[in-house]
Design brief:
Distance between the termini: 37 Å
Helix content: under 10%
Structural class: mainly beta
CATH class of one domain: Mainly Beta
Largest sheet: 4 strands, antiparallel
CATH topology of one domain: Jelly Rolls
Number of helices: 0
Order of helices and strands: EEEEEEEE
Number of strands: 8
Length: about 130
């Protein structure tokens, strides 16, 4: 197959389906197969965290976490930190109003905190998959 794609029924060369939980594997070397097992989440809990200019917990530590999703429904940028004590100067990612962020590591199970760059009446819509 072109581009070094492995010819195997389990390998798909297309955009993931909406219900795919996604796993990206890269074959290093030739002639071998990559076998990947994944644990799919079976529960999703949604929470609306009010916009605040004080660092607040968006997700607590959870060893059972399989995914974390954040939608900034606030009126100011959300400074989100993987770890404690998000500040305007120390954060992981800046999520603009109406922006979205997904925890990229499967799974990061530690605390997630956030602080907005200004006061307002918005929220951060958080979904945690376990």
């Amino acid at each position: 197959m072109p581009g070094g794609i492995v010819s195997h029924p389990a390998v798909r060369d297309r955009v993931p389906d909406i219900d795919d939980w996604g796993i990206v594997s890269r074959v290093i070397g030739g002639g071998g197969f990559v076998i990947a097992d994944q644990i799919r989440p079976f529960l999703a809990v949604r929470t609306a965290i009010p916009q605040t200019v004080i660092s607040t917990t968006l997700l607590a530590n959870n060893v059972n976490r399989r995914g974390g999703y954040f939608y900034n429904a606030g009126t100011a940028p959300l400074y989100l930190a993987l770890g404690a004590g998000a500040t305007l100067a120390s954060y992981t990612v800046k999520v603009m109003p109406h922006g979205f962020y997904e925890i990229p590591w499967a799974p990061y199970t530690g605390i997630v905190t956030g602080i907005w760059g200004g006061a307002g009446a918005g929220t951060c819509q958080v979904t945690e998959a376990t």
